[in-house]
């Protein structure tokens, strides 16, 4: 069991990666078929956990994540939360949970000396629209460029290069480094030479991203210990029961892969 309270008190840096729009079934079959060798070597025994996301598209899911609500197991009994805003006096909190005295996790971590940095991916992190500034505004520092976004076939390489630059700059202080991987968000048909997005093309996008995420985590953990959280913010429907896209309470949207580990 991970004690985020102990980890944060010790000033351990945190890497939080969201694989945007990644369906649980796609992540699981890619893992089982050996298409993501780095994740296979990194993830806990058994691979990805299936969890339920608190939001059916990018904005509400991430607002929930940064407020302390990570994806939950699809069962009545839940493990202690990693982090939580201080609750009302009548509610008990597990000692392993990091309780923050702030309206969001980023401000709570700042009170413990952390620098929070966002390496955005999809346009909700781009500042190109009013809504595109809501999530970046939560961070001390945010970075986004067009080549970080999913239409760019080598987006994850560019994002990882940017994340490593940030980590080098702040290697002597606790860092909350957030990376929103856009490769698994539509459009991803180009990874298999098609104009249509499917489970097959999302699997190919994840296989592409695996190598670069491996490079990121290998280089970060070579220098120090990190708490690493990886999950999808939501899934995506590709014609399932006639549905397309996200923002709907369909199982393929609400079931997401999740993993947390210390390395």
TrEMBL record:
Keyword annotations of the record: Hydrolase
Superkingdom field: Bacteria
InterPro entries noted in UniProt: Alkaline_phosphatase_core_sf, STM4013-like, Sulfatase_N
A GO molecular function held by the record: hydrolase activity
Ranges of residues in domain Sulfatase N-terminal: 14-250
One Pfam family of this chain: Sulfatase
NCBIfam families per the UniProt record, alphabetical: fam_STM4013
Name under which the protein is recorded: STM4013/SEN3800 family hydrolase
Organism of provenance: Streptomyces rugosispiralis
């Amino acid at each position: 069991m991970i004690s985020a309270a102990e980890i944060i008190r010790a000033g351990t840096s945190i890497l939080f990666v969201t694989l945007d729009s990644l369906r649980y079934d796609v992540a699981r079959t890619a893992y089982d078929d050996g298409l993501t060798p780095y994740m296979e070597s990194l993830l806990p025994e058994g691979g990805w956990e299936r969890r339920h996301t608190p939001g059916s598209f990018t904005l509400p899911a991430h607002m929930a994540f940064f407020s302390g609500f990570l994806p939950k197991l699809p069962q009545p009994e839940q493990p202690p939360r990693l982090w939580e805003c201080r609750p009302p006096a009548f509610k008990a909190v597990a000692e392993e949970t990091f309780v923050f005295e702030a309206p969001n996790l980023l401000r709570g971590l700042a009170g413990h000396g952390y620098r929070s940095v966002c390496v955005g991916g999809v346009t909700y992190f781009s500042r190109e629209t009013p809504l595109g500034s809501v999530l970046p505004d939560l961070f001390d520092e945010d970075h986004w460029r067009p080549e970080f976004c999913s239409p760019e076939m080598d987006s994850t390489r560019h994002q990882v290069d940017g994340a490593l630059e940030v980590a080098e700059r702040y290697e002597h202080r606790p860092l909350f480094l957030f990376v929103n991987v856009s490769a698994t968000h539509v459009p991803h048909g180009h990874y298999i030479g098609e104009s249509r997005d499917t489970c097959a093309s999302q699997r190919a996008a994840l296989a592409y991203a695996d190598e670069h995420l491996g490079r990121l985590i290998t280089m970060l953990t070579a220098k120090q210990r990190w708490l690493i959280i990886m999950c999808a913010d939501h899934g995506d429907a590709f014609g399932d029961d006639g549905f397309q896209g996200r923002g709907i309470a369909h199982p393929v949207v609400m079931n997401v892969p999740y993993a947390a580990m210390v390395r």
